[in-house]
Inter-alpha-trypsin inhibitor heavy chain 3
Amino acid sequence: MGRTVVQLTLIGLQLSMRSVKPVVFSQDDWDIYSFHINSTVTSRYATTVITSRVVNRMDESKEIEFHVRIPKNAFISKFRMFIDGQVYDGVVKAKEQAQQQYTEAVSRGESAGLVSSVGRTLEEFKTSVTVAAHKKVTFELTYEELMKRTHGKYELQIHARPMQPVKDFKVDVYIHEEAGINFIDVKGGLSTKALANAITKTHAWVYFYPTVDQQTMCDNCGEQGMNGDLVIVYDVNRNNELGDIKKSAGYFVHHFAPSNLPRISKNVVLVIDKSGSMQGRKIEQTRIALIHILNDLAEDDHFGLITFDGNIFPWKLELVQANSKNVESAKNFARNIQAGGNTDINQALLQGANMLNTHDREGSASILILLTDGQPTTGVTNLEKIQSNVRQAVAGKFPLYCLGFGFDVDFEFLEKMSLQNNGVARRIYVDSDADLQLKGFYEEVATPLLTDVTMIYVGGTNLTQTNFSHYYNGSEIVVAGEITDNNIETFTPQVVAISVMFDLRYLSAVIFVSDDLIQRVWAYLTVKQLLDKELQLSGPEKEQVKKEALRLSLKYSFVTPLTSMVVTKPLGETIHVLHKPKECEAPQSMKPPGRQSISRHGGTSTRHRSDNVGEQHKQRQCKTSSIHHDLDSVANRGFKRIFIHFKTNQHVEIDTKGVTVRDGQTETHHTGQDLVTAGSVTVIMRNNEIDIAAGDVRLVILVHEKNSIKFLWPVLRQHPSANNTDGLLGDGNASDYSIASPLMMNCWLTSADSALQRPLADFVVPQL
Ligand SMILES: *[C@@H]1O[C@H](CO)[C@@H](O)[C@H](O)[C@H]1NC(C)=O
Ligand SMILES: *[C@@H]1O[C@H](CO)[C@@H](O)[C@H](O)[C@H]1NC(C)=O
Ligand SMILES: *[C@@H]1O[C@H](CO)[C@@H](O)[C@H](O)[C@H]1NC(C)=O
C-alpha cells in the first residue's frame, strides 16, 4: 500500500475519545442562580455587562465554564470572577507578553487556554474555573462597541445562551439618545411568539424576562434553555441635518447622517469572479443577486459588468446608461454566466478601473465592486504587485469594495486592497442567503448623497478619520477627537462636501454632555482605524502605528488583536489568556440554534455542532490546524508519523525519532527533551510525550513502545474554541492509549468521502 495521507479531525478524535463515556446530561452538579445581560447605549456607544452566578452542587470541586458570544465589533474591556469573597480581575496585556505567560504555563504542563473564534457577527468568549464543593462563582464580562448605522438603523445584537434554564434570567437594554429615538424594534431568533409576552418595550428601555418554562418551550429553546439572539433595532431623531456634536471632558464626537438630500447618480462597475470554484450554488446566487442589483439601478445611473476567470469578459467595453433596454440586456448576460477556469483578479480589476477612468465622472459618484471566492491563480499572482497595480489605476478617484465569497479567499489581501482604495471588504458567507447578503451590501452603497466629504474641526486635535469619499443614505459618518485645551470658544466644526449641484458647507452646534464615554468613543474609533491603517503599511511606519494602537488598547483596557486578557485563577490553577481574533482567523459559521454545540458547565460531556462539514472544510484555508497521518502505519499500533499544519505556513512533523518544525522558510529539527517555539506554535518534547500548543488547541502526542516498536498516539487535551477543524474519523482498529487501560476502538477511521458528506455529530457514538 502506498503512502496515503489521511486527515484526522481534532474534533473527531475528541469525539471518539470522549464518547468512551456515555453522554449523560445531568442538572444536579451545577446550577445557574442568575444570568443577567445589561446593555446601556449612550450616543450610539453600547456597554454591555454579562453577569452569571453559578453554584457547584457537588460534594467535590468542579470545573465550571463560562461561555458566551459577543459581537465581533466589540472590544472586551473587563472580565472578573468573584469566588469565595475574592475578586479575580483579568488584566489586558500586550499580546507578546501574554503569549509568554501562556507558553510558560504550557511548559509547566498546565492547560492554559486561548479563547477566540469568529462567526458571521459574533465571536466566542470562554473561560472556566475550578470551584470547590458547594461554593459559588460569579462571572462578569464587559464589552463595548460603537453602533454602526446601516440601512437607516442601528442594531444591537445580544446573544443569550446560558446553557440551562435559569430562574433569574434578565436582559435589560437602555438606550439614551439626546436627540430622541425615532423607532425601536425587537428582532432576532428569540423574538418569537412563545416569548412575546416576556419582552417589554418602553420608549428607551427594552427588557426581556422569560420564565423558566418559556426558556424551554420557545422555538430556539430546549432542555438546555435558550439559545438565540435578541436584536434591538432603532434609529435616532435627526432634527438637525448638520448632525449632532457632543462634548465632554475635552473630547467630542460628531454624528453626521443627513437624509433629506437628493441622490447623486452613480457609475458602478461590478467585477464578478466566475472561476471554476464558483460553480454550483455560488454562481447561481451571484446571478440572482446581480439581477436584483440591475433592477435597482436608477435610470440616470451608469453601469458596467465584467466577469472573469483566466480571461476577462466585459459585458460592454464602456459604461452604459441604466435605461430599461440596457438593463434587460445586462440581465440576460447575468443569467448566462457560467463558472469555469482560473482567477485573474489583477487584470479584471485593472479593466474595471479603466472603465470608470474613461467615463466622465463629473457630478456623479463612481464605485468599483469586486466579488471573488478565491485567490489569484493566473496573470499577476503576486499579491503586493496586484495591490500596487490597483492602487495606481484607482488613484484615489473612487472607492473599491471587495466582497470575499466563502473562506477560500485571502481576506486580508482583499481587506488591505479595499482600505488602500477608500473602500471596505466584506465577507459573503456561503449559505442559503448569500444572494441577500450580496444585495444587502449593494443597497448600503446604492444611494450616494454626498461625495468628497471633509470634516473640519478648527480647534480640534487627535481627530479620527475626517475625509470620506462618499456618504450613502442610511449610513453615518462619525468623527471623534480632542478639543484643543478643552477650549470650546475656538472649537468650530464644519462639513464641506459636494452634493448634486452645489457644494455644501455646514456649521454645526455643539451640545455639552457630561459622561466619560465620549473619550472612550474616541479611543474605540481611533484604535479601530489604527488597526486598519496598520494593515496597509509596512516597515517602520507600520510599527509606529501598531505601537500607538497597542498603547491605546492598553490604556483603555480593550482586548484587540494586539492585546490579550490574562485571567489569573485561584491558587494552583492556570491562567487563561483571551485573544481577540482577526476576521481571517478561526472562522466559524453560526448556524441556526438547534444545531449548535452543547457544551456544559463542568465540561465533562461535549457534543459538537453539526454544521455542514463541507463548509468547514472550506474554512480551513483561513486558519486552523489539521493533522495528517501515515495511514499504512496505523493498524492497531498507533502512528509512525503525524503532521500538524497550522495556519498556512507553520507545520510540525513528528515521527518516532524527533520533531521537525517548519515556520515559513525556516526548518529546524529537534530530538531529545526540548522546548521549541515557532510563530504561535509551542512544542515541548518530554521523555515519552510531546506537547503541542497552537492557537487555542493543545495536543499531546504520546510515544508508546510495544514489542520494541515505537509508535505515536495523539490526544487532544484542549479542543479548539472554533469548532472548524476538519478531517475524518476512521474505521480501522485502534487502541486508545490516552486512558490507563487501552480500549480497542473499531470506528476510528473512515473514508474521506463518507465523512465529509455527513455532519460531524453523526459520528458520535454513545459507547464503544
Ligand atoms: C444596568 O446598568 C445600568 C448602567 O450601568 C445601571 O444603572 C443599572 O442599574 C443596571 N441594571 C441592572 C438590572 O443591573
Ligand atoms: C434616504 O433615506 C430616507 C429614509 O431613511 C428616505 O426617506 C429618503 O427618501 C432617502 N433618500 C433618497 C434620495 O433616496
Ligand atoms: C482631506 O481632504 C482635504 C480636501 O479635499 C485635503 O486638503 C486634505 O489633505 C485631506 N486630508 C487627508 C488626511 O487626506
Q: What stands out?
A: Residues 517-536 form the longest helix (20 residues). The pocket of 2-acetamido-2-deoxy-beta-D-glucopyranose (ligand 3) is lined by residues 454, 467 (CB under 6 Å). The radius of gyration is 27 Å. The chain has four domains: 4-14+601-763, 24-237+559-595, 241-251+450-507, 266-446.
